[in-house]
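Notes from hallway chat w/ T.B., transcribed later so I don't forget. T.B. wanted the structure written out for a chain they're using in a teaching module, and asked if we could keep both sequence and structure tokens in one place. Agreed to drop them here.
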Amino acid sequence: MRAGRKQGTDRSESWYCLGLPIRGAAMDFEHFRHYARGWLLHFFGQEEKAFNEYAAAYRLRPNNAKAACNLAFIAARRKQYDVADKWFIEALSLMPGDAGMHFNHGYVLEQAGRPDDAVAAFGEAVRLNPALDLAWYGLGMARARLGEHAEAAAAFAKAAELQPMNGEAFYQWAMACHHANQPDQVTVIAKRLASFEPKRAMKLIKDAERPDLRHLVPAEVQEFFETHRS
């Protein structure tokens, strides 16, 4: 029986479910020991010790994408973005077709203040998986940070299309259009946003300096917004 394929008596299946890299009877014991300890330490929140164990496992088997991924995630969680970048590159060298991993790499690059590199990572993520709304959103944020507002608007529009109830995507889309001097598009987006998130629409109207759009938001929402923002 192949591990993790179906339920049965094969004990390796339970390890597969834990995310442990099973390689059959010939599996290197030292590698397994370090990886298993890393997984347990990670599970119990001991990230520094887990990182060291995963690193030891990776040194013993440098084709272990799971170990590289875990090292990247731990470093990113600790805001050690240069370290996380290194491990995402290692992971992606082993799994270049993983759109989610490219998105995670893009997020780290954006947080590290490297929007150009983030654009490349997010762009690869959406190329591999055009339905990955978070990657479109990340691409929009990175483009906006570079001052490429028209391109940012296009990315946010795609994120909003994929998640039509994501008010933040609509807000960022409208603000990108505002900075790109597309007032008519701001009006269209504000109307849509007001239909399901009037408070966020009110924030958009204020931030985009469009008092002419206040009529889109119910009076009680305007009053609530002003009361709690004053």
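Follow-up for T.B.: The two ends are 66 Å apart (CA to CA). Might be a good example for the class.
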